[in-house]
Design goal:
The protein is mainly β. About 10% of the residues lie in helices and about 35% in strands. The radius of gyration is 18 Å and the shape is globular.
């Protein structure tokens, strides 16, 4: 009898947590005070914590979320962050990726952050998959970059404007070097692109979906 009661309690607690996520709780991935839930790979100096914001600037490096939320392994989710670019800056937000010691992340998709840099793929692009040529926000202003993944569908919004609505086909055609750009599961990463690019991130949130 006692075992059955314990099982029932555990089941109900688990059901309650799942229901809580399903009802739409946003969870912070960055508290503004430390980077202990994040792991940088190539160049430590390219990622800084400054006045409650993550600042990426310098030689190529990627900051991966390696914290406890969903054991940093996300499948279906909503993600949003406040982002600000300086003039001529390039960065990116990866999802369904995984930590690697060096190089451009080979697993997962990149959502572009670029309002004025030379690369014609602008903010919100699902990089090299469904690219955005229009510029929806300017440099030196905070905006919201939102990503939703549910099943095979990816939606990207910039300040509530849908700029990408992409459904991955059954057998997506990927060029050599891009084989890992497919829907799977994994974590998020923020990109430090080059020394001439400075981008700020804050209010980084995720909402796991069933």
């Amino acid at each position: 009898m006692i075992k059955r009661q314990i099982f029932t309690l555990v089941f109900l607690l688990g059901w309650g947590l799942t229901t809580s996520f399903a009802q739409g709780d946003w969870i912070s991935l960055f508290d503004g005070t430390s980077l202990e839930d994040w792991t940088n790979n190539e160049n430590d100096a390219s990622v800084k914590l400054e006045d409650g914001k993550i600042v990426v600037n310098g030689p190529r490096s990627h900051l991966f979320y390696t914290g406890p939320v969903e054991d940093h392994n996300f499948k279906n989710f909503e993600f949003k962050a406040q982002v600000m670019t300086k003039k001529g800056s390039n960065s990116g937000i990866y999802f369904h990726t995984m930590y690697q010691d060096e190089g451009w992340p080979s697993k997962g998709y990149e959502v572009q952050v670029n309002n004025s840099q030379g690369d014609w793929r602008r903010t919100g692009s699902l990089y090299s998959i469904l690219d955005v040529k229009e510029t929806y926000v300017g440099d030196d202003e905070w905006y919201t970059e939102y990503i939703k993944v549910e099943g095979k569908r990816v939606i990207v919004k910039i300040n509530d404007i849908v700029v990408v609505d992409y459904t991955e086909p059954e057998n997506p055609l990927r060029e050599e070097g891009s084989k890992g750009r497919v829907i799977s599961n994994g974590t998020f990463a923020l990109q430090a692109h080059d020394p001439g690019s400075t981008v700020y991130y804050k209010d980084i949130m995720v909402r796991p979906l069933p």
